[in-house]
Amino acid sequence: MEYYSKQISRLISELSTLPGIGAKSAQRLAFHILNMPTEEVQNLAGAMVDARQNVHYCKHCFSLTDDEVCPICSNPNRNKKVIMVVESTRDLAAYEKTGKYEGVYHVLHGAISPLQGIGPTDIKLKELMQRLQEDVDEVIIATNSSLEGETTAMYISKLIKPTGIKVSRIASGVPVGGDLEYIDEVTLLRALEGRTEL
Ligand code: ZN
Fold first, then answer.
1. Residue partners of 175: CB distance under 8 A and separation at least 6
2. Which of 24, 69, 73, 116 is most buried, with most CB under 10 Å away?
3. Residue ranges with CB less than 5 Å from ion ligand 1
4. In the chain, which stretches have pLDDT less than 50?
């Protein structure tokens, strides 16, 4: 990209490191940014830097938040005795959109994948087990229905069984290999309501 000056090339190359942004999109975005009012560009850059610096894990459920405790965990109306285990904060958001789930969550930040070298200690499993020392009635496993998601679900249920806490798995209304965040709310609700005890 020698036909662009150094700073334009740098902008394009930084943008192209983002997921889903190829060389062409990066160029398009770069020229869009160059045409934006300086103030808007500052707002955009500021939002990125602020979010990156201030967003961290909720100390209870490990979802992403800029407070010490996320809005769901700090809501007195949520049932803290029911914990839904999800792979990512995006999956949590998918269930929140249904507006029907009243329990709390636990975000694993990944799934067990021997192929990719991701083991139980690489996700927030130990933290889940620590939470189960408190008064918990049910753990709903809502990992994706991919191989990794199923492996993780089995692993978790084996860990929890000896504690006597009820463990359930969301129904398979969710298509195999389906990514929770792309599934419509009705299907998600059906999967939740039709969950089976493990
Ligand atoms: Zn939380």
1. 145, 183
2. 73
3. 58, 60-61, 70, 73
4. 1, 176-177
